[in-house]
Amino acid sequence: MKLILATMMVVLAGSVLAEEVRKPIFTGQVGSAPVQVMYEYLQNRISNELGIGEYQQLVIKQTAAGPENFKQVQIETQLQGLLDDSVRTQRFQLSMSFNDATSVWLIDSVKQDWQCRRGNSRAWTQKPCK
Known about the structure:
This protein has one domain (26-116): Nuclear Transport Factor 2, Chain: A (Roll). Helices cover 25% and strands 38% of the residues. The chain has 2 helices and 5 strands, in the order αβαββββ. The protein is globular and about 45 Å long. Keywords: Signal. Residues 1-18 form the signal peptide.
């Protein structure tokens, strides 16, 4: 009985830790679409304080998790044609989920990477270009 109780305590403690790890990176506002939440989160990386971005193209692609699962999406944002002579493209990949209890979109994870102008210009790297 003590062993079962101890095992249950460990499992419960693990569940609490798992919930703590799942805190969102960013929480959107009620009524905001996923792209709006992405822009709010990345705003200072996409443009300066005047709203001007130093790139030729901003490419945003939103993909639902499945044909009937529109409450989990992936958003890929690419800044192409940067003024930086070492970086060809900068990319952000966000995983988002809709929280039914609060009626807002949550950013669950973010990945940032780059395509460099030198070397293999088609490969993505998680280290900034030199």
